[in-house]
Design goal:
This protein is an all-alpha fold. 65% of the residues lie in helices and 0% in strands. It contains 14 helices and no strands. Helix 5 packs antiparallel against helix 10. The N and C termini lie far apart (52 Å).
Length: 362
């Protein structure tokens, strides 16, 4: 897989990305041909100010699409890519750890941008659906669609412009396969209603999608280091991460039950009950916190961080009276257990017990 293409191709893509004005957001200005010179100058200044406000409004709207995924997807993905890329480079012949570390650190902005724009493609596709808007109006009313910053048709137009630009960007970065896989999985999850087909399919699509994101971010972190393919050990670790997500991702459904009931989605907490779901989630998290360092063959001290975090989160999810002592948001990097245990699905906010559940719409 090529990491970079020819310079003219890169310039073309960067120019496209830099000049892309989302038509669904653009402000229309009146005809100024018959104004006086003074009026034209005043109107032009007003147009510039209005355009600046428009861009600020638009970028904040895009920010809101991924806001809730910063802790749960973007930062863990970036950290995973950093660790795996450092492992890949330092295991090459004639590697130099200080130089390799500096190189990987300089790649982190690229990883963040790549992860953010690829995730944006999925979140817009997900949040624009009518049933998602209904769910978000209860669970996350600040998102762009329920807050009326954007309507469904404008979201569709936005995707029509963004998907080709993101594919071109990923082709330049050498991650076209990963972006294509993420797009297909997003289509299955959202447009084909895979997220509502039952717990197994929903969890499997989540695991495959996040693994594609992790693989692509790792490739971006490697950059021009000479590694054009991930090693077998990294692919095996991605498989472990997918297995962890598959067995624990249902934890995100615990605080979202009200919206899931409103949209008629059959999640594990609604099908099997809250208490059983908590145990089904907590036991694998604790188990994986032992298994993952074992797979890396780490020394005894290497078990302290993953096992400690895994047990703490497991107890927290089961709800053994620690709610009054521990706020999950106050844990240091709660989703970074992916680095030690690959348990990338811990909640980033307290899970309410027995919430007041609204009646589903008739």
């Amino acid at each position: 897989m090529m990491i970079y293409t020819a310079l003219p191709q890169r310039r073309l893509a960067l120019k496209l990305l830099a000049t892309l004005r989302f038509l669904t957001f653009q402000t229309q200005f009146g005809d100024h041909q018959h104004h006086s010179v003074t009026e034209n100058a005043t109107q032009k200044a007003n147009n510039v100010e209005s355009s600046d406000r428009c861009w600020s409004y638009n970028f904040y709207t895009l920010w809101l699409f991924n806001k809730s995924d910063l802790k749960t997807v973007i930062l863990p993905t970036t950290t995973f890519a950093f660790c795996c890329a450092l492992f890949e480079i330092t295991n090459q012949p004639c590697s130099n750890l200080p130089e390799d570390l500096i190189y990987i650190l300089t790649r982190l902005p690229h990883v963040l941008v790549w992860t953010w724009v690829n995730l944006l493609m999925e979140t817009i596709a997900n949040q624009r659906l009518p049933e998602s808007i209904l769910e978000d109006s209860i669970n996350k009313p600040w998102r762009p669609f329920p807050s009326k910053r954007l309507n469904e048709d404008k979201g569709r137009h936005l995707l029509l412009w963004m998907i080709p630009a993101i594919f071109l960007f990923s082709w330049i970065m050498g991650t076209l396969q990963e972006t294509a896989a993420l797009a297909v999985l997003s289509w299955m999850y959202n447009d084909l209603a895979g997220s509502s087909e039952g717990t197994f399919i929903r969890n499997a699509l989540n695991a495959a999608g996040l693994s594609s994101l992790y693989a692509g971010a790792t490739m971006v972190a490697l950059g021009e280091s000479g590694n054009q393919e991930l090693t077998d050990q990294t692919w095996r670790w991605l498989g472990v991460v997918a297995a962890v997500i598959m067995t624990t991702v249902q934890v995100q459904d615990l605080p979202d039950r009200c919206g899931d009931i409103a949209r008629g989605r059959k999640t594990m907490p609604l099908v099997y009950g809250e208490e059983l779901t908590r145990w089904i989630t907590a036991v694998p998290i604790i188990g994986w916190s032992f298994v993952c360092p074992m797979l890396w063959d780490v020394a005894g001290v290497g078990y302290i961080a993953p096992v400690g975090m895994g047990v703490l989160l497991g107890i927290r999810i089961i709800g053994c009276g620690l709610e009054s002592i521990i706020n999950i948001n106050d844990l240091l990097a709660p989703r970074y257990a992916s680095i030690f245990t690959a348990s990338t699905t811990q909640p980033t906010h307290p899970i309410p017990k027995n919430p007041t559940t609204p009646r589903p719409p008739s």
